[in-house]
Amino acid sequence: MKNCNTSEHRITRRVLPVACATALAAAFTLSAPHPAHAAQITVPPNLPASLAVDPPNHPFLLGKAKGTQNYFCTTRVDAAGNPILDVAGNPTFAWKLFTPEATLFSNDPRDPKQIITHFFSPNPDELNTDAFTDFHPIRATWQSSQDSSFVWARTLVAGDSVDVTAGAVAWLKLTAVGVQNGPDGGDVLAKTTFVQRVNTSGGVAPPADTCDTLQDIGRQAFRPYTADYIFYTDK
Q1: Spatial contact of 146 and 114, defined as CB atoms under 8 Å apart
Q2: For the stretch 12-30, what's the b/e string if a residue is b when 16 or more beta carbons lie within 10 angstroms of its beta carbon?
Q3: pLDDT for 135-192, tens place per residue?
């Protein structure tokens, strides 16, 4: 009987470490966070056809934006820069967007992290053909908070902008027209080919009657908005 008990104790000592190791491995497997994959980025089901991005481009990053669309009141001008006059020959006025100011957060409601900042800035990859304007055209800009890489993008045709949500800024498809690696070579955003702005709320310009006199010129309005930005690559 003594020998039998000794044998059982030896077996128990051997089995317990194996069982503990197995339990720990199972616990780690259940609790370890899963990496984010492009397949987990869901394009809105009601996306207008004109905003679709064709293969081989595919989404690789989603940012949840919160910020403002910033406007100023100015004289309306035509494509040649001439003032647009009313029937009485007087200048007309309108709100004009001069920059967005937004922070994009990761798509994790439990622990959202800042991943990108969004604003307007000159695109170094383009030269402006108009000698009377900035040397580099001003474009929508996104800068990675991770590695300081950049992408500049713009809408190219009228169908790239669609009013989907009432009282909100338009949904957009923007084509990358400039990219830049971060100072250490990071390319989180430098591999971007297209950007979609979808699921928007707010951000529209103030009512027209708040910018309709000469005294209103120069007034500014910062309009809160939210949106989802989906970044595509062909890499």
Answers
A1: no
A2: eeeeeeeeeeeeeeeeeee
A3: 889 999 999 999 999 999 999 999 999 999 999 999 999 999 999 999 999 999 999 9
Is the residue at 226 inside a domain?
A: yes
> Omega into 56 within 30° of 0, i.e. cis?
yes
Total of domains in the chain:
1
**DSSP β-bridge partners for residue 224:** 68
Give Cα 149 to chain centroid, integer Å.
14
Q: Is residue 45 part of a domain?
A: no
**Whether the Cβ atoms of residue 120 and residue 139 lie closer than 8 Å to each other:** yes
Tracing tokens 């990358």 back to the chain, one arrives at 176
| pTM across the whole model | 0.80
Q: 127 in a domain, yes or no? A: yes
- Which DSSP state fits 37? -
Q: Is the dihedral of CA 213, 215, 220, 223 positive or negative?
A: negative
CA-to-CA dists, residue 164 to 45, 53, 233, angstroms: 12, 17, 25
Amino acid at the residue 203: G
**Cα separation of 226 and 182, whole Å?**
26
Output the six-digit token pair for 148.
Answer: 């300081």
